[in-house]
Specification:
single chain; 229 residues; Metallo-beta-lactamase, Chain A; 7-stranded mixed beta sheet
């Protein structure tokens, strides 16, 4: 599915990722869980994209459902990985990503840590070849937008001419636009500020990590949501 011309959605059981067509080749935005890689490789080929010819692998943040396939796709393509430095320790496997805040996190966090380290779930560590910063252009006019909160290094991609925003887990769309779950959000006030930052942009289509993308009047929907925070 194209959420906008040249911006393709691929959904797995857990997460959405995107393929962005650029003049240098396809850029993969997030990579799913590690166990998804064989199926994603098949899906990419069926869509007409050669996984060995990726031009870049853009990681919105360091959660395992977004970076799990990054090491494999990097090996297969030689494409550089791009991410924000604030999430490097999670992406590189140096530290376990902490749970969020609140009573659910206090219970869920200690119980989840052993599960997160299992081979079935844990993301293989991967290096970051290029650190991106807010406002930087990475390819064909796609601009980095720093959207911290869910993790400190969450970044999206915004194209002002195409009027598309890919926002990772800055928001979800599960029945309606929502903040990421508090128990998995490291800084809720920052997450709310990031929604207000999104609301200041102009975009028709919004691609997110969880839930359906918004393909019409997306910035208006985000402005309405931001007003409730």
């Amino acid at each position: 599915m194209e959420i906008a011309p040249g911006v393709h959605l691929i959904s797995t059981a857990m997460v959405n990722l995107y393929v962005v067509e650029t003049t240098d080749g396809p850029m993969l935005v997030d990579t799913g869980m590690s166990r998804d890689t064989p199926r994603l490789t098949t899906r990419l080929r069926a869509m007409g994209f050669d996984p060995s010819r990726l031009c870049a692998i853009f990681l919105t943040h360091g959660d395992m459902d977004h970076v799990g396939g990054a090491a494999a796709f990097r090996r297969a393509s030689g494409a550089p990985t791009l991410a924000h430095a604030a999430d490097l320790d999670f992406i590189a496997g140096r530290v376990q990503r902490p749970a969020g805040t609140g009573p659910v996190a206090a219970i869920f966090g200690p119980l989840a840590q052993p599960i997160m380290r299992t081979r079935w779930i844990k993301a293989p560590p991967v290096g970051v070849d290029r650190f991106v910063v807010d406002g930087e252009t990475v390819a064909d006019g796609w601009r980095v937008v720093h959207l911290p909160g869910h993790t400190p290094g969450l970044v999206g991609l915004y194209h002002p001419l195409r009027r598309v925003l890919l926002a990772g887990d800055a928001v979800s769309n599960l029945g309606r636009l929502r903040l990421p779950p508090t128990f998995m959000t490291m800084d809720t006030p920052a997450a709310k500020a990031s929604v207000h930052k999104m609301a200041a942009l102009d975009f028709e289509a919004l691609g997110i990590g969880h839930g359906a993308p918004v393909t019409r009047a997306a910035s208006a929907a985000v402005k309405t949501f931001a007003a409730t925070l």
